[in-house]
Each structure stands twice: as C-alpha cells, then as structure tokens.
C-alpha cells in the first residue's frame, strides 16, 4: 500500500540457540536517520 511514510521497518533478527531467527515486520515509519526511527523501532523489540 501507499502512504506518506519515509521509511519501513523491515525485520527483526535475533540469536536463537546456535542459529538465528528472522521475523518479518514491514511496518511503515517516518524518519531519515536511525536516530529518527528509534521510537518506531523500539515498539518492535
């Protein structure tokens, strides 16, 4: 879908035992830098 957001939170990657686990997120967000996006990212941690 379209929208006026300027960024997208794509996925969360975390250690799982001796491997890795990826969870798709795909959430729209607004910001131009990592620091701008921290409040939106924190909701998915």
From TrEMBL:
It comes from Streptomyces sp. SID7499. It comes from the Bacteria. This is TerD family protein. The lineage of its organism: Bacteria, Bacillati, Actinomycetota, Actinomycetes, Kitasatosporales.
């Amino acid at each position: 879908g379209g929208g006026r957001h300027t960024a997208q939170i794509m996925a969360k990657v975390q250690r799982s035992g001796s491997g890795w686990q990826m969870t798709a997120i795909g959430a729209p967000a607004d910001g131009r830098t990592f620091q701008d996006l921290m409040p939106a990212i924190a909701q998915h941690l």
